[in-house]
Amino acid sequence: MKNLLVGLVLCTLVQWVAIPTASAQKRTELDLTQVLHSNNFKAQNRQATALTSESKKAIHLDAKPGAGIIWLNDVEFSNGEIEFDVRGKDVLQQSFPGIAFHGKDLEAYDAIYFRPFNFRADDPVRRSHSVQYISMPGYDWPKLRSEFPDKYEQPLANAPDPNGWFHVKVVVASPKVSVFVNGAEQPSLVVDKLSTRQTGSVGLWVGNNSEGDFANLTITPAAGQ
Prior knowledge:
By secondary structure, the chain is α+β, with helices and mostly antiparallel strands.
């Protein structure tokens, strides 16, 4: 009986060590330049090109009037984590890079985006508009700022270089969305989603007249999804 119990314990330990978590099994690290070269995306109101001069495998979205999204094909996201490196520029009202999720098309999605030109502004009001949540079509930033001031946009502690790369982690645990920048332990923004969408596409997002650079995109679904 003693040998049998030892055998069962050892078998259980082996199974526990050998089987990864559900999130680890589904973690997806995307080479965005490969996504571009394989045409495995859908572009809406933007063109994307590879950044060959960068040390990282990055892509560039051009600037056009209106928002634009590069949707990733074959990616359906509900809850979990989206991480990426992003770079905008310190030009007033011309830099709005971010990420869209739970998307259906250019008209219906949730998004987190940044205003790098506000990161280190002397004006504290501008600094308070550094990171933004929106939910389209009903809740764009003018409505949110007017009706819910300082709730869906916040400043960044230890604000990064507005012309440099920075790392973003968006944690979606519906309805809660939390945004972490450059590995910070405390989130820069925490909101409850305003849409009823529970799942959808993920896309690289840029706002009106904005370009943006993106790299190192990783998507990790929550355990069990």
